[in-house]
Structure formats: structure tokens, C-alpha cells
Write a structure and sequence with these properties.
Elements (H helix, E strand, L loop, with lengths): L9 H21 L6 H8 L3 H7 L3 H22 L7 H18 L1 H11 L4 H19 L8 H23 L5 H16 L4
């Protein structure tokens, strides 16, 4: 059984972080197939068994990498808040930034989406964490006077649209511009009445 990220010592957390960074680098260079656990271990400078202490599978590792990716987006949005005159524009700005990040690294984006849509239970748990992070990021775009239950419901619906767009993009339905347009429409429909 893998060690929970919140139960790690500082040394273990640093080692786990090296593993995640190595997986991100390999996926960015060659996509899903390029992330082989032995290669991750070599790149991270850890034993193969060490990786399995933190991540029970390749899909769990890549899904955790997606959580890291989303947490990085959260840090950037927190530092420089969502832009736009309306709630819909600000929420869309969050998605625009996420799409731009994925567009810069399409191999990595495809790899983590493949992992998130696998039947791996640990990857599924990471998918929930990814949704939670994206929800926190979106909530920064709402005005203070919006009912928290309404915010949560809108963020949940938009999270589903976001995930659906990611899967569709990965399956070749549309490009990143298509995804951005779909998200813009969803933001207008769900948030347009808030201002």
C-alpha cells in the first residue's frame, strides 16, 4: 500500500516530489508511453521499490502529477487573481490559463488525461483531488456576495464540463481552441446571471 502524501517526513516528501517531477518530465517529452517506472526511478535517482511506496501504479503516479500541475495553477492564480469584468470572464480566465498550460505541453496533458481516465482506483482518487483543486481555483473568480452553495454547484458543473472537454480533446474531438470555446460558453451559461 502506498504512503499517503500527508503522512510523509520531509525527506520522504522531497523524494516523492523528485519522482513526480521525473514523471512530469518524461511525460512532457514522450507522452504516456514514455513514463516507464524504471525510467522514472533512474531519472529521480531512487530505487524502483521507492516509487511503489508512494504510487501503486503508473496511472496513480501520473494522476498525482496532474494534481501537482493543478496546484501550480492554483498558486499562480492566487498570486495574480482571475481577470475579467464579469464573473463569467474571471472564471473563464482560470480555464484559459489551464488550457494554455496544457497547450504548451500537449504530450504531458495527454499522458495525465490517459491516467485519469484509466480504471485504476488510486488514479480515480487523484482525479477527485484534481477536481477539488480546480474548484478552489475557480472559486477565486466569484464575487464575495454569491451564495456559497451556488458557487459550489457552478464550480462542480464547470468541473464536469472541463473534464469532458479534456477527454474529448485527448480523443481527437477538437483542439485546444475548441476546448477553450466550449469552456467559454459553459462559463457564460453558468455564471452570466451572477453580475
Amino acid at each position: 500500500m502506498a504512503i499517503a502524501a500527508d503522512a510523509l517526513t520531509m525527506t520522504q516528501a522531497a523524494r516523492r516530489r523528485r519522482v513526480l517531477v521525473s514523471a512530469l518530465e518524461l511525460a512532457a517529452e514522450g507522452g504516456y508511453e514514455a513514463v516507464q517506472m524504471r525510467d522514472v526511478a533512474t531519472t529521480a535517482g531512487v530505487a524502483l521499490g521507492t516509487i511503489y511506496r508512494y504510487f501503486p501504479s503508473k496511472d496513480a503516479l501520473l494522476a498525482a502529477a496532474m494534481v501537482e500541475w493543478m496546484e501550480d495553477l492554483e498558486r499562480r492564480v492566487t498570486q495574480r487573481g482571475p481577470r475579467g469584468a464579469t464573473t463569467a470572464e474571471r472564471v473563464y480566465d482560470v480555464f484559459r490559463r489551464a488550457v494554455a498550460t496544457m497547450e504548451r505541453q500537449p504530450q504531458l496533458a495527454g499522458a495525465v488525461i490517459t491516467a485519469l481516465t484509466s480504471d485504476d482506483t488510486a488514479a480515480g482518487r487523484a482525479s477527485i483531488s484534481t477536481t477539488d483543486v480546480m474548484t478552489r481555483v475557480m472559486l477565486q473568480a466569484f464575487p464575495d456576495d454569491v451564495d456559497p452553495a451556488t458557487e459550489a454547484a457552478i464550480a462542480k458543473v464547470l468541473g464536469h464540463v472541463w473534464f469532458s472537454c479534456l477527454v474529448a480533446w485527448k480523443n481527437g474531438v477538437g483542439d485546444m481552441a475548441w476546448m477553450a470555446a466550449e469552456l467559454d460558453v459553459a462559463c457564460q451559461l453558468t455564471c452570466g446571471h451572477l453580475d
